[in-house]
Write a structure and sequence with these properties.
Elements (H helix, E strand, L loop, with lengths): L6 E3 L6 E3 L1 E4 L12 H13 L4 E3 L8 H10 L8 E6 L1 E4 L6 E2 L12 E4 L3 H15 L4 E7 L3 H29 L3 E7 L3 H10 L4 E5 L8 H4 L2 H8 L2 E5 L6 H4 L6 E2 L2 E2 L2 H16 L4 H7 L7 E7 L3 H11 L5 H11 L7
Parallel strand pairs: 3-4, 3-15, 4-5, 5-9, 9-10, 10-11, 11-12, 12-15
Antiparallel strand pairs: 1-2, 6-8, 7-8, 13-14
Helix pairs in contact: 1-2, 1-11, 2-3, 3-4, 5-7, 9-12, 10-11
């Protein structure tokens, strides 16, 4: 195995992760079905390029991503592998009042529902299920999933935060104290909520999707990343391609924020493409490496569904990029830069 990807430490947790992380949504059947064989080949390709950080969640295919990840990683001697999964969402039977997943997000996944459960006892049950699906006695990193306004609304976010803080967080802290998990944290998009967990929750890691990209630097401009440094919390910068457009470029039908990109976003990406081209750098390489310019970012987490995607992402994230590109993107495209 060619283990050539650099690694960075995770806060106070005493573990290190590859700078490119493997997001398992796709092998859970997100948007399109993926065969077992293709899922296994994709994970094997990730190991071959030196990816040691694998992120999953019960929601991804209603358990299918965890099952496939566990099966794939169980076939190799991988003491250096770091697996993160999530709590806060429980897999429930069809008709139980949760949200069905196959029709909405995971047509290739199991036919079940997901329901929010931030309770203390519910968190233990969710983790027990994840351990069984992963085939492991311990999960390296556990994150509280989706305490956001998108799911709970402006009127419900305070109640969700309180439930997660008083239930799931306390359960994770107990698991960490008992050595059942190495690092605990959050996986959510709202930067202000992430900052509250960092200030109040004694966490190790914040996985934040879509807030440290060439199109959205909210994790930087909000002060979230500086707060991470202050509290020795590592950030995982997820969704670096902004759900598609920073990987495909400004093509017709390109997606941004899980929607069809607006004319304004297409124009911004076109400008970035011109700047990158002038510096001899692929837009995709810049998109993957941009979050790593801040020292609080431990890893960039990208979803991958084929071995070819894995290999291409590994090449992009290790492509040499001069400081001049970052300056040009700041000057010509308004991409905020870290002063750290």
């Amino acid at each position: 195995m060619s283990n050539w990807l650099p690694r960075r430490g995770v806060g106070r947790a005493g573990m290190a992760v590859s700078i490119l992380g493997f997001g398992s949504m796709a092998i859970g059947g997100q948007y399109v079905d993926v065969s077992d064989a293709d899922a296994q080949a994709t994970v094997a390709a990730a190991r071959a390029v030196g990816i040691t950080f694998f992120d999953t969640a019960p929601q991804y295919g209603c358990g299918l991503a965890e099952e496939r990840l566990g099966a794939a990683l169980g076939q190799v001697n991988a003491p250096d592998v770091i697996i993160s999964s999530k709590v806060g969402k429980a897999i429930t039977p069809l008709g139980s009042g949760g949200e069905g997943q196959r029709a909405l997000y995971f047509p290739g996944g199991h036919d079940a529902e997901m329901a929010f459960d931030f309770s203390y006892d519910g968190t233990w049950r969710i983790v027990e299920g994840s351990l069984a699906r992963l085939g492991r006695s311990r999960i390296d990193m556990l994150l509280i999933h989706d305490v956001t306004r998108h799911f709970h609304g402006e009127d419900g976010i305070e109640a969700a935060f309180a439930k997660a803080s008083n239930g799931a967080l306390k359960a994770l802290q107990r698991m960490r104290d008992d050595g059942l998990v190495g690092a605990i944290g959050i996986g959510l998009k709202d930067t202000d909520i992430a900052m509250r967990f960092i200030e109040e929750g004694d966490i190790d890691v914040a996985l934040v999707p879509g807030r440290m990209t060439l199109l959205d630097q909210g994790a930087l401009t909000s002060g979230l990343l500086d707060l991470c440094l202050k509290h020795d919390v590592s950030m995982i910068a997820a969704a670096p391609f902004d759900s598609g457009i920073l990987a495909t470029g400004a093509i017709a039908g390109a997606r941004s924020g899980y929607k069809t990109a607006t004319a304004d976003i297409l124009a911004r990406v076109q400008a970035m493409e011109r700047v990158c081209l002038a510096h001899g750098v692929a837009l995709q390489a810049a998109a993957l490496q941009y979050p790593l310019q801040h020292p609080a970012v431990a890893s960039v987490l990208a979803g991958m569904k084929t071995a070819a995607e894995v290999q291409q992402n590994a090449t992009w994230i290790t492509t040499p990029i001069g400081k001049e590109l970052w300056g040009a993107l700041a000057k010509e495209c308004g991409v905020a830069q870290s002063n750290v």
